[in-house]
Design a protein that fits this description.
Shape: globular
Helix content: 10-25%
Number of strands: 9
Distance between the termini: 39 Å
Largest sheet: 7 strands, mixed
Strand content: 25-35%
Length: about 160
Amino acid sequence: MTTKRSAGLLLFRQSGDENAADDGVEVLLGHMGGPLWERRDEGAWAIPKGEYEPEESPRDAARREFTEEIGLPPPEGPYLPLGEVRLSSGKLVTIWAVRADLDPALMVPGTFTMEWPPRSGREEEFPELDRVAWFTPPVARTKLVASQIHFLERLLDLLAG
């Protein structure tokens, strides 16, 4: 059995306000779409990412997935590697950070199809991410799915020097 792999981009911006908490850093997160997440907020946001096959490079996959999930072209680099995290499921997630600004109102989400309601035999289409928003690190820690908080911490360590 081959290991499932996923890659994504964590956008960040800085206000330049040295007096702001975390030096004015904000990160862009997406709220997971579909009926299983619609009523959740804390722990229901994620870094835009997705699975890829072995023949695709992780960085190319991260850029492709950004476009698929957000509906906008990925920002240009430089791409700062935040490394990998192995999830309890065994999936290996690789994330890059990139400094960019993006207006959440411009998002055009990609979609996925699933049977809904369960065992109904009906297929429904849902957005992969139903919205995106900028968060300061303290708020992002409460919004992110737990397995992705490592990437936020790595970004903050990198920015701190």
